[in-house]
Structure formats: structure tokens, C-alpha cells
Amino acid sequence: MKWLLPAAALAVMAVATAPAADWRIPTTVKKLPNGLTVVVSEDHSSPVFGLAVVYRVGFRLEPRGRTGFAHLFEHMMFEGTPQAAKGVYDRVVQGGGGVDNGSTRFDYTDYVVTAPVSALEPILWLEADRMRGLDLSADSLANQRSVVKEEIRDNVTNRPYGLFFWTDLAALAFDRWENAHDGYGSFADLDAATVEDLRAFHRTYYAPNNAVLAIAGDVDATEVFTLVGKHFADIAAQPLPPAPEIAERPNSQARKLVQSDAFAEVPAVAVAWKIPDPTSPDWAAAAVLGEILAAGEASRLYQRLVRDEELLLELQGGLGWPLGDLITINGPALLVLFGVVKPPAAAAAVPVAIQIEVDGIAHHGVPATELERTKTKMLSDFYSGLEPLIERADLLAIRQAFTGDASSINRVPDQVLAVRAADVRRVARTLLSETNRATIERRPAQERGQP
Fold it and tell me: Looking at the whole model, is its pTM more than 0.70?
């Protein structure tokens, strides 16, 4: 899972002043004969670069019987290769003043680096080296399987609420295994994994024709293409598995689950509605509606449920929350709302209050001033997120992987600006209906017997 970059990373990030509203990211794209797509975005404002390698395999794209493999492999990629032993990758990157990172999401796994331009070729060599092959062994598998299990214990099974607003809520709301299964990892599937399974997974999903490499920063596109060809061109393409069927229809009946939590001191509630994939005309409007409902202390539900009615201690959520958003999801998603109940309020009252607010939008819409304020904030967050070169490279690679067009990142502001009040109202009425709603109440264990 992606972790936060340390403060030292700021020294090698190109952070400029906030870009103008009409700022566009330049992109140059080339595909190698082996299928690797390379995206370059030149920015000569600072002598650093951001690099991202995105592989088209995430939680919902991993094969059945290999639950958690996409996540496990994120760890295995740092276990070394026959040419660069474990630890060499980090030492080269960090020794050159850089920072590296990795994450697994619904539709991709990414590996990102930011460093001074002098480190570009060594880092390209390292990325090509681990795309070419890993030093997979029974010991490295056992080690990282243990690390992943401990991560699951720390983040899921042995902490209050345990990410139920992601894993359990998806299992309740979605129908297809690809969308509903626990991408963090099944202990049974992890225990059954063999070294040969890992080799097959790497050979299939970490092939150059299943990857996008993007570089943003103080580089020359022609020189980058030459370097990438030098280090990656001899890596063979592989037959790719057919894309799984992941489309979902809205649910026709509300779904609800009550769970017990041995570590929670107060109840929590998670609510979600199924949203079609990004090709849907409702996609951007759903993202805007999620912002209106739950983005920060100025949002409608925060004001109503936290400040005014004091039903909740906190509220978070949005389209794809907590592991995706408007531009980093490539399939059906959930619009999620999560809140921790403020005693003595009843958890059962929270979904009712949320639906009342949603139904109010469905019937009456939102004022023009609120809609414009929300869209302005979304665009500000979008542009701010593109300032660090490491994030810019990542988003360019993701967009290229999803759409076949890295420059589509420049059309995101238009998507947001095009959302009208009628669109928000339609999404609230048709998709955020009570029948399409999934709800989980997570109660402290001592409340198990309560109705």
C-alpha cells in the first residue's frame, strides 16, 4: 500500500506556484516494439524528475484463487533481482537523493520515484531490471507473505473498524467477485502461493506490453526515449489474459449488515452506492456530488451530522474513497460515506439522516453558488496534486494505461466544469437511491446483543 512521502522528499520534488486555470501538461508518447508505452512530460523549472511505472493489474484484475496477489507482488518487487540484490534499489534511489514508493489499487499497481536528473539512467536500469525478472525464492516468498499478513493484522483485524468501509462494504455492495473480493489478501490464498505462482504472475502481469512508464521533469523527450529503448527494448512481450468482466448494475434492493468490533469503543457506520464506470455520463457528476456531501468541514453532511445534529464525531468519504477518485479508477466504484457515531446517538439513525440529505438534493437540487464553489475546490485540489513531479508522472501513466491517451489528464477540468446542477440532481435521484444503498453498522463487541 502507498505510504506518505517523508519531508525529505520535498527537496527533490518540483513544486511550483499554483498553475493557471488554463495550464496544460505537455505530453509526448512512444510505444516500443515490445509494447511498453512511454510518456514524457517536459518541465524545466527544476533539475529533478518524477518517474512512474504503472502495471495494469490491481485488486479486481488479479485472477481467482490469487486473492491479494497484486498487493503481495507490490512487496515482492522490492525483494531484489539476480543482478541487483534486495536493498540495492532503495540504496541507489535514496543514495542519489531520491525517494521511491509503490501502491496497489483497484485497477493498477504503480511504482514511483522522484530524484535529481543525474540519477535518471541508473533508475531506468533498475526499473528495467526488475521488469525483466525477480530473484524469487521460497525464502523471499515466506518473508513477504509474513509482512503482508502482519500488515493485514495491523490495518484490518487488530484495529478499530479495520477498514470495513473498504473491504467489507465492497463485498456487500458489489455482485461480481472481481469487485467484491478482499484485495488486501486472503490468508488462505497467500498460504497456498508457491514460487512458481509468483513467477507466472510476474511473467504475465509485469510484461512490458502490460505497462506504462511515464517521466515528468527536467528531461528531453528524445533522450528519454533513447534511454528507455536502451534498457527496456530487449524485454519480451507476453500473451496477456483476457480482461475480466467487471461491469455492475445498480442494486434493486437495499443491503445492510451489522458487525461486531472487538476493538471499537463507539459504533461506526459506512454507507455506499454503486456508481457505473468512468465511461458513464454520471461519473463526473457523482464525483461532484460526493464532494458536496462529504468533502471537508464545509460539506453538507459534515455540517448536518457532525456540527448540527451531533450524530457523528467525524465524517469522510467521496467517489472511490478511500482508494480512488475521479481520475484513478477504471471500473465501477462506490460512492462511500464513513462516520464514527457520537454517543449517545444511535448508529441506525445515521443512514436515515444521510438519505434525507441525499433525497433533498434529488428533489430540490443544489444552489448554483454551492455547485460552483465545489467545482472550484475540486479544480484547485486537482492542480495542486499535479505540482509534485512524482504525482504528475504517476497520473500521466495511469491515464495512459486507462484511456490510451495520457493527455486526457488535461480534459479533467472540463469534465468537472461541465457538471450542471441537473446532473447532480439526476445522480442523487437515480444512483443514490435507498434501493442502491449498502450499509454496514460496526458496533462495539459489548453491543452485539442490542437490536
Answer: yes
Closest CA to 31 of 217, 203, 211, 205: 211
Give the separation between CA 12 and CA 46, rounded to whole angstroms.
Answer: 9
Strands 437-444 and 255-261, how do they pair? parallel
Nearest to 61 by CA among 402, 421, 447, 422: 402
Over the Cα atoms of the chain, what is R_g?
A: 22
- SS3 label, residue 313: strand
Question: What are the pLDDT tens digits along the chain (451 aa)?
Answer: 543 333 334 334 433 344 555 679 999 999 999 999 999 999 999 999 999 999 999 999 999 988 999 999 999 999 999 999 999 999 999 998 999 999 999 999 999 999 999 999 999 999 999 999 999 999 999 999 999 999 999 999 999 999 999 999 999 999 999 999 999 988 999 999 999 999 999 999 999 999 999 999 999 999 999 999 999 999 999 999 999 999 999 999 999 999 999 999 999 999 999 999 999 999 999 999 999 999 999 999 999 999 999 999 999 999 999 999 999 999 999 999 999 999 999 999 999 999 999 999 999 999 999 999 999 999 999 999 999 999 999 999 999 999 999 999 999 999 999 999 999 999 999 999 999 999 999 999 976 444 4
Conformational region of residue 299, where left means phi above 0, alpha means psi within -120 to 50, and beta covers everything else: beta
Could you tell me which residues come within 8 angstroms of residue 7 by beta carbon, excluding any fewer than 6 positions away?
Answer: none
Which phi and psi angles does 290 have, rounded to 5°?
-60, -40
CA-CA distance, 109 to 87, in Å (whole number)? 20
The DSSP output letter for 85 is B
- For the chain, residues classed under CATH 3.30.830.10 are 7-232, 255-447
CATH architecture of the domain with range 7-232: 2-Layer Sandwich (3.30)
Closest CA to 154 of 193, 192, 184: 184
CATH class of 255-447: alpha beta
